[in-house]
Amino acid sequence: MGGVLNAQFPSRRRLQNVVRNTFRHLFAGAARSWTRNLGTTAPALGSMTLLLLLSGLVGLSAFGLQRLAASQAADAAELHIYLRDDAKQPDVDALRAKLTANRQVTAVSYTSKADALKRAQRRPGLPELAGAADDNPFPASLDAKVRNVQDVGALAGSVTASPAVDPVLPTSYNPGTYQRIQTVLTVVGIAGGAFLVLLAFVAIAVTVNSIQAAIHARQEEVAIMQLVGAPRWMVRGPFLVEGAMTGSIAGLVAGAVTLAASLAGLALGASTFAQLTPGLTVGVCFLAAGIVFLAGLVLGSAASLVSVHRQMESA
Amino acid sequence: MPAIVEIVGATCLFGEIVALDDVHLALRPGELAFVVGPSGAGKTTLLKLINREMRPTSGEVWIDGHGAHALRPGQIASLRRRVGVVYQDYKLLPRLTALENVAFALQVCELAVSDEEAHDRALDALEAVGLGGRDDAYPGELSGGQQQRVAIARAVVTQPPVLIADEPTGNLDLETAWQVMKLLEQVSRFGTTVLIATHNLDIVRRMQRRVLTLVEGRLVRDQPAGRVGRLAWAAS
């Protein structure tokens, strides 16, 4: 007994032992426990994968919609002022000078009737309309790029009195269109965000419960570790690693599916897909997959941190 | 010699129930003492103060110069490494062998210990408690007395200066209980302070060590070693 209680033990290869024991307790122990408790972890893994997958797909859709909104905003910020077919050149020049002098206007260009026809022929449905008419139905226009989309209406109102402007359809300004797009995007954004928040809540709750179940399954071991004086990080660490493992595996699966789905969409959908989600490239798809993986890692770690804190806060 | 365990005016309240009432106590290094008293007298509460499973409502608890009463949660582990614990129900991990149970406690407390060293020290501890040949047995394959020996080996393998035992013989027959007590006495002989809470008055009388009697949370008698007291609470 004296040897057990009073012997001095030389410290050999301390660092090597510390590293190996730390790795074994934190990572190997967590991996073993994760595998053993796969039954209780599966619901968390499933719900987190679903959350991350939907987040990835919704994120990519949101990216496309944001780019679409940006291009719509750019279109809406360009005002076409249609000219009478019989407009006199001095009147056109005066109108152009007036537009150029306006501080809200960044650029002014002229589109002839022939250019307007060519432009219309590139738009769906309009070639038939252009072909049906005996002569060119599209008017010449002065195209003004406006600094702020909110000023387009005022600019449109200020040019209608010009003798060069077509009295029947003076400008391309349609007060409702841009606002309607914005409203739809806002509603879609709020609904998508709310859905993801709800799903995140469910995923975190399920993960917290699964980690708590893992702690419960090892309650005896945890209690003994605490009683013999294992440091807190060693008692809690494996559960945090377990949560991070669950999150990163869910993130890996969801990221891979997001990547595959978006790449398949890019490859198969080609032009249609590009129109729906402008700006979506292979690089963006990989970035989205990476973000989904990282989100899984963070989500799993955070959920396990919450449950470990709840379950193991000792006296 | 300065006290290694010092309890100064410790009071523990659970709502309106007084578990400990102004207890003063000092234990020297290598001392073996018994805590006796009827059920609910506060014996377990007293032990829980020492390894900081509980903190006193008021008063101070000093272990090896460290104020257990004032420790933050993150500091408790370092205190517990100075206090070995033995329980009535042994608290062994059933899926580990006797050797692994002992080595597990060593390796979670001392990260710098290698597998070989943990194995050797655990084996030494098992041999010291008389279980040298049963190191690869699982707890389920051992008798109650043998399991308690494994628990003692686990408690001493980290060389704590203090060992507390809560009813260590509660599940054992008289002969086995006596062997376990002799083992704990042997532990104290090598400098470890041992405090044992027990109901087993036969053993307390035979050991003739210091006896602390708790009744309704109050330390009503502190009988020095070498004397046989009345243990009056037993008649109450």
What secondary-structure arrangement, pairings included, does this model have?
The complex is a heterodimer of chains A (315) and B (236).
Chain A: H1 2-6, H2 14-36, H3 38-76, E1 78-82, H4 89-101, E2 105-111, H5 113-121, H6 126-132, E3 141-146, H7 152-159, H8 177-217, H9 219-228, H10 232-276, H11 282-312
Antiparallel strand pairs in A: 1-3, 2-3
Helix pairs in contact in A: 2-10, 3-8, 3-10, 3-11, 8-10, 8-11, 10-11
Chain B: E1 5-14, E2 17-27, E3 32-36, H1 43-50, E4 58-63, E5 66-67, H2 76-80, E6 83-87, H3 98-109, H4 115-128, H5 144-156, E7 162-166, H6 174-189, E8 193-197, H7 201-207, E9 210-215, E10 218-223
Parallel strand pairs in B: 3-8, 3-9, 6-7, 7-8
Antiparallel strand pairs in B: 1-2, 1-4, 4-5, 9-10
Helix pairs in contact in B: 3-4, 3-5, 4-5, 5-6
Please tell me about this protein's structure.
The complex is a heterodimer of chains A (315) and B (236). By secondary structure, chain A is mostly helical. Chain A folds into 2 domains: 28-71 and 179-312, no CATH class; 84-165, Alpha-Beta Plaits (2-Layer Sandwich), CATH 3.30.70.3040. Helix content of chain A is 73%, strand content 6%. Chain A is built from 11 helices and 3 strands, in the order H-H-H-E-H-E-H-H-E-H-H-H-H-H. A 3-stranded antiparallel sheet of chain A has the order 1-3-2. In chain A, helix 3 runs antiparallel to helix 8 and helix 10 (232-276) runs antiparallel to helix 11 (282-312). The longest helix of chain A is centred in the last third of the chain and has 45 residues, at 232-276. With 236 residues, chain B is an alpha/beta fold. Chain B has a domain at 92-159. Helix content of chain B is 32%, strand content 26%. Chain B has helices at residues 43-50, 76-80, 98-109, 115-128, 144-156, 174-189, 201-207; strands at residues 5-14, 17-27, 32-36, 58-63, 66-67, 83-87, 162-166, 193-197, 210-215, 218-223. In chain B, strands 6-7-8-3-9-10 form a 6-stranded mixed sheet, with helices on both faces. A 4-stranded antiparallel sheet of chain B has the order 2-1-4-5, covered by helices on one side. In chain B, helix 3 (98-109) packs parallel to helix 5. Chain B is globular, with a radius of gyration of 17 Å. Chain B starts with a strand and ends in a 13-residue tail after the last strand. The mean pLDDT of chain B is 90. The A-B interface holds A 1-6, 9, 11-14, 17-18, 21-22, 25, 220-221, 223-232, 234, 313-315 and B 51-55, 73-74, 76-83, 85, 91, 93, 104-105, 107-109, 111-114, 117, 121, 124-125, 128-129, 153-154, 156-159, 186-187, 189-192.
